[in-house]
Amino acid sequence: MRKISEEKLALERQRLEGMKEFENKYSDFEFIAGIDEAGRGPLAGPVVAAAVILPKDIFLPFLNDSKKVTEKRRDVLFDRIKQEALAYGIGIASNGLIDEINILQATYEAMREAIKKLKKTPDILLVDAVHIPDITIRQVGIVKGDARSVNIAAASILAKVTRDRLMLEYDKIYPEYGFASNKGYGTAKHIEALKEYGACDIHRRTFIGNFVGE
Predict the structure, then answer these.
(1) For position 140, what pLDDT does the model report?
(2) From which residue to which does the signal peptide run (predicted)?
(3) Which domain, by its residues, includes 130?
(4) Is 171 part of any known ligand binding site?
């Protein structure tokens, strides 16, 4: 692994301090959990949520919103977050559940599952953009939270890498849809495959009505 210069490390520390807006605001709380999800928009596969409690003094170079991090760097961060977090949990809501209760409610269910899997009980939840129903722990919904909270950014990495790896496995079962590259999103090639082959078992039926008949 290429060594990071002292100058670059110093800049990273400064950048990450700027991402602790809400950790600093709620610094009186001992265990601060960040919550985020991946996969609300695709036509296929589950929605995945993660909850992460990082040590307050942790330094994870290049931690950021998962969408702003390369795949290679996400994989490195995924392992480090799991190793160094005080606690983490991952929740998964299937495409069947999404069709049954809708994507928003399924996302909440995945988030609740992720919180339940934490080995430490959070004192406060920092949640990207939403407010999770049926949770008694104090929570704060933060617009663009994955850029304003290191715990939410860490959760976004765990959620995305977990989901991407699931879609790679599904690609082996259903290679015609290109899940390895599109991760279930509605790319032109994915939609062409839907029209040619119809839906497979992991497609969200409530999402694909415009592309394939029942």
Answers:
(1) 97
(2) none
(3) 6-168
(4) no
